Amino acid sequence: MEIFDYDNVLLLPRKCRVESRSECDPSLEFGGRKFKLPVMPANMKTVVDEKICLWLAQNGYFYVMHRFDLDNVKFVRKMKQAGAFASISVGVKPADYEAVNQLAAEGLVPEYVTIDIAHGHADTVKNMIEHLKAKLPGSFVIAGNVGTPEAVIDLENWGADATKVGIGPGKVCITRMKTGFGTGGWQLSALKWCARVATKPIIADGGIREHGDIAKSIRFGATMVMIGSMLAGHEESPGSTVEVDGRLYKEYYGSASDFNKGEYKHVEGKRILEPVKGKLPDTLREMQEDLQSSISYAGGTRLSDLRRVNYVILGGENAGEHLLM
Ligand SMILES: NC(=O)C1=CN([C@@H]2O[C@H](COP(=O)(O)OP(=O)(O)OC[C@H]3O[C@@H](n4cnc5c(N)ncnc54)[C@H](OP(=O)(O)O)[C@@H]3O)[C@@H](O)[C@H]2O)C=CC1
Ligand SMILES: Nc1nc2c(ncn2[C@@H]2O[C@H](COP(=O)(O)O)[C@@H](O)[C@H]2O)c(=O)[nH]1
């Protein structure tokens, strides 16, 4: 198997088919709705809050609300009252089952539910998918996280509508060091490996460091990407603002860090400071422009045209040109 990651792969251009990048369309359909970009901010406390989720929903972007210190029933009700779609996260504990029961009892159907646990290839996830499909059959269920084709096959067979791939490639992740497991360092090839067997959308989660990494993810089989650190350091980001030597930073911490958990137990995440880089809508607009450029370099007009390009691996054992025959 070829092993590579975002920083040692480059996509190869094909003859341009447009006169302006404005002809290139980076929008997509996901779970029955159309979105401007194949990008979702990570469902983490320092990346999204209710205000950001509402703004994203009302402005044509997908979002997933986090599940920490949050009443999912209240959140879904608020989003519905605001005329927006609801996209929540759940775990696999009794309180999560109870929240799903309450949503069903009140007829509050979130359009999207993400089962968000560290080791998603587990019977606990199978049971939660079954519960969601029984209680909220109208919800689109995203399940994860996983890092192997076997796991993608199981989650799809258990009823997941999309799977999330990425164990440990995140910027505040320490799973690799703490456990010796994961896709950190080879996330892009893990994505390629998983996408080969997938029959439903895959979300590439973690490790996106540059806008061009979105196009690379699409090339290797992702339908969407989930981004934490690159979207965390904005003026509106929920993390606390910290000033160091006259420069402003936003804190960004892992959901499995002691900062999120409130205790040092089974810690697999850390806290860092991200330099404040302006406003979130400006970054999303720039991502959109950059993705339009990517599509034009692919010689196409739509996101799916990125799938057809050749690529090179720079350096290392797998170095060389990889042509589609
Ligand atoms: N993408 C990634 O690489 C990772 C992401 N995270 C994020 O951190 C947050 C917390 O995750 P998580 O700890 O799963 O959530 P929870 O604390 O809600 O745990 C979910 C359930 O899974 C169990 N569990 C957790 N890890 C494992 C494991 N390795 N093997 C077996 N059972 C396990 C927990 O039990 P118990 O605690 O008793 O074991 C608990 O019952 C989530 O948002 C998750 O996405 C965390 C680590 C890696
Ligand atoms: N191993 C851990 N992974 C975590 C934790 N909290 C979140 N995450 C994952 O990281 C991505 C975001 O990655 P980034 O590279 O874009 O910053 C997020 O979506 C989760 O899957 C954690 O505590 N430990």
Automatic annotation (TrEMBL):
Signal peptide: none
EC number per UniProt: 1.7.1.7
EC category: oxidoreductase
Active site: 173 (thioimidate intermediate)
One Pfam family of this chain: IMPDH
Record GO biological process: purine nucleotide metabolic process
Residue numbers binding NADP(+): 202-225
GO-annotated molecular function: GMP reductase activity
Stretches assigned to the IMP dehydrogenase/GMP reductase domain: 5-309
Chemical reaction(s) catalysed: IMP + NH4(+) + NADP(+) = GMP + NADPH + 2 H(+)
Sequence similarity: Belongs to the IMPDH/GMPR family. GuaC type 2 subfamily.
Function comment: Catalyzes the irreversible NADPH-dependent deamination of GMP to IMP. It functions in the conversion of nucleobase, nucleoside and nucleotide derivatives of G to A nucleotides, and in maintaining the intracellular balance of A and G nucleotides.
Entries under NCBIfam families matching the protein: GMP_reduct_2, PRK05458.1
This protein's name: GMP reductase
